[in-house]
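Example 3.
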Amino acid sequence: MKIGSVLPAWVLVIVAVLVALGLYLASGSRQGAPRHAAATFERPEHAHLDHAPYFKEAFDSPQAVTRACLKCHPKAAEQMRRTPHWTWLGDSVAVPGHEGRFRLGKRNLMNNFCISVTGNNSSCMKCHAGYGWADDSFDFSKDENVDCLVCHERAGTYVKGEFGNPAKGADLLAAAKSVGFPKRENCGVCHNYGGGGQGVKHGDLDSRLDNPSREDDVHMGQLGFLCIDCHRSKEHRIAGRAFSVSVEDSNGVACTDCHREPPHRDPRINTHLASVACQTCHIGTYARSLPTKTFWDWSKAGDGTREDDPHRYLKIKGEFFYGRNLVPEYAWFDRTVNRYLVGDRIDSTKVTAINEPRGAIGEKNAKIWPFKVHRALLPYDREYATLMPPVTAGPGGYWHDFDWSKAIALGAKAAGLPYSGRFGWARTSMHWPLSHAVAPKEGALQCNDCHGPRTRMDWAALGYEGDPLLRGARR
Amino acid sequence: MRPRAIRFAALAALLVLFATPSHAANAMHPTFAVLDDAGVPASRSGRSASSERTCGACHDAAYIAAHSGHWNERVKAECAACHWEGGSLPTTSAVLGSDGKLRRDALRISAPQDAHCAACHGVVHADASPVRLPEDFEAPRRAESDYGFTLRTGAVFSADDVAESFLNLREKASLHAPWDVHARRLVKCVDCHFASNNPTRKDLKKTPLDFLVQDPRRIPLSEFLHRPDHRLAAATCRSCHDPMKVHEFLPYKKRHLDALECQSCHIPHPMGPALRMLDATVVREDGAPLASYRGLERVPGVPLDATFAEGYAPLLLPKRDAGGETRLAPFNVIEAWEWVSGATGRAVPLDTMRLALLENGRHAPAVIAAFDRDGDGRLSDLELRLDSAAKRELVAGRLAALGVAEPRVAHRLERHALEHGVLAGAQVQHDCNGCHVRGSRLDGRLALSPYTPYGAAADSADSAGASGATGVRVVVAADGSREAFASAQATGLYVFGNARRSWTNRAGFLLFLAVVLGTSSHGVARVFAAKRGHAAEPPRERVYLYRTYERVWHWLMATSILALMLTGMQVTFASSHALIPLPIAVRVHNFFAIVLTVNAFLSLFYHLAAGAIRQFIPKREGLGQQIVEQARYYASGMLLGQPQPSPKSRERKLNPLQQLTYLALLNVLFPFQVVTGALIWGASRWPQMAASLGGLTLVAPLHALGSWLFLSFFVLHLYLTTTGHTVFSHVRAMIDGYEELELDSASPSNAGGTRASSRS
């Protein structure tokens, strides 16, 4: 039939354009769906090549497992050896208030939890992606010491022990057979337990995220995201920054990686985006299910008469406070921090901020962020005015002899710090910006949570003349 | 009145104390000495403070009292009740400075806070604890205004999520909306209810002059502070909002906003305890009249907070605003029963009722004897019911003994407009089917009294009308329970999908049915006739009958009419099962209406210019004869295989019957539909045009009747296309332009056809 004689050409063109437009629009709305996603009853897990057939015989050492992996993935170890998961050092960066450039990482920084890894290798290196980092003699160039399994085994039976070696009795063959891309549990085994226990360090990471509800975390609980859906990796280098060790945010992860157009229908909310981080409203409270540590007084340690309770007091660690469902503290943050480096002098009359967020009301690229702030009393040298990293585990360590001076002297030696022999207790704080455990939309903050008489904001401390609802936003 | 004022202040004090965070001391207001009513410092005399003397030292107390809605026979709110944190001025010397005046840090004076208003008006909730009903919510009413804000409409003024409240609500966990979005956005009571001569209010003086946006002239601040006019403003939604600037999803925005108050959609379902009935023909042991609440069933012993409640959907009734505009707005309707004195027509006060029925804080023995059914010596709410002549006489007698002349039971129907508990965003009524279907919220119903007091039935129906409750119809069921009905249609509003004018639809449908029956029986007859065999096929010739433009025009017309009929049907009979959303259907309808009209005018131009118009004009001579012949052919000749009396030819594509039909269609029905359609479309922008012709109530059903006629034509037309020499030959001709015409009739006309085309 001669359609052309019935319908003019322009009609056909319009129809074709409309159809094309419809197809484009219909295909457009997929952005933001997780690439991997956890298995649910409705949806099987993203398939991964079954590695079981490749491994037949038992391994006599963990290094043998790595060698087997490298047969097919020859570049993997070399790639891993360049990442902070292996080096525990970042790229060379400038640190505000310090001359020169530094490579910083867990290896050479202090925190106000267990203070420092220096001299505490036996337990700290449980979370090193390698085998046998016992002391400075560890050979970082050795491929076979890379621990592939901790991130890739999916059987859930692999456990690391002293110096990062597999715990006794770990079934290496079963672990090797199960490998695939990392599950939430693979990341969680270290990151959920930072600081030596559930939810100790991060207020927004704990084992609830292994299998979260929608209310725990909307991305993982409702949409089935895995960690690696946001923390994407290139050549084993995983995107994301923790400001407990990083001082800047290159290769970071941001909400706007996926949420390009803010989906708020209300223009009033969108005007907030110039000054308020997404996290501020969408993570209204932290440690919503499991408690997190907010305060640690090391000076109270050593009292054998007090009853041990992992959430209140331990003879080896001192006194703590834990909190649950906490309101964050808020500060301007341009995603760089002022870092306390080992050897920096402190003012013992003031609170020493270990990683103070940088930014102020006058700086355009700073936004108001939510933080978990952990406060702790740490030992310091009264004469040199430096924070001192004590050795805790092992012979001569505090947990062994309960002698602070001895432990500090040992730690000073390991860190190359002078020690006068006179120590005191310094007040310190650490800021943990919150980005995980994003609440579903009905849990987001509302106007009156920040504005009006029931505000959670300290407007004066943030540099405002008063409630910006009445006094206007920053200019 | 004095004790009431004190109680008022004490209550305010109590609530303010618990409900508000402590405000900072006022840094601007001068310090002053708290005086008693003799003008002596209260700390010295030890007497209670007098707002009139204390505040009146500077402010014009007499003026304020004379210009205040909170200072009258019923209510006497002291200044401090609304302006002092805690609600009463301090008289202890602990807060005094060395000069005998209040210390500056003790100066807790401010514009009224929400908690001040909450003390009397209802559940206004400002602190961090979950929303709950005050302990004394159900206590004997002190004055009619007590908690009236919540009692009358079910509104709760709080920024909190409903889901986080203490109340036992249906599907509470899913109610992630604030009790009131203004509270959440930090709009305070006084932001809308401000002193009406407050010079800082920009929206205060509306000018009647069109060329002025506002009148900038103001009284000086000093004068305002001396004589503030306490007749508080009641800002409407439109004082702050311009609804025309939003609501982009609404077709006919102006029409909707002219017909509806904002509250109709923005207060869809109050969840607080609103009154349903107040029965003051009896009093409970605690002196309160019997009350029943909307959307909840009381269980004896269970507090109101814990009673399972589902809120209620208000009635949409016409409301006249201050500007004289009438729009539909949501209302709660409360039925009240009370004794009135037949002589004076005045209601018997509650205190008199208590005197009549109670003795020593309990019901009088005679009352118990008459009412106590279960014999437990106490009267439950279910027993306290005036349901027999004996009980009625007993109460009437006891009232008469107290001096009430000719007591009788009267009935009031109160309409209370919903103003608070406003929602925004996703919680608001967005669904077209919320209104545009039969039995939608426009045809609302609200339960009233579950019973009718004995002897009140006769006069109660009348008083419903007499109370001025326009648009409310009260229906009394056989068991005496009563229900209020509203209907938008009864108020003269024509709402597509909701209102149906049965006569046009019925007539149109009957016509449509007749055509369908007629054509199908004709078709069946043709099939049988064809089976019997018919005359030999005459020789035929392929003739180019319809030119490209004519075909495009035809199919564009056909598409438009089909789309118009489908979408028009959805608009008229809108249902939730429609293929496309109603707003899109409306837009599609309007789009094709324009396509159809433009197409018609273009084709008129074409037909005039090309002379093809002659095809549609019947020849006058012998027209009657030809019509009869043609009708006879359709009725019998076609079945018997007789030849077409006016055979199709290039010169004459239409037979006389067709010509007449098209003439009527194009000259009468078509313009009729265009005009009525345009009037409906224009009802939004130029409402007076449709109104001058009887409004949508008349125009819309006429348009619907026209569409039935179109539909009938459509069916007939579709059927007649099958009457060519094969079933699809006419349809084919309209697609490719060629039709096989019988040779003998086709030959002479070919010349004519050539002539026609050569001319164009």
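Confidence is low (pLDDT under 50) at residues 9-21, 458-469, 745-760 of chain B. Chain B is about 40% helix and 10% strand.
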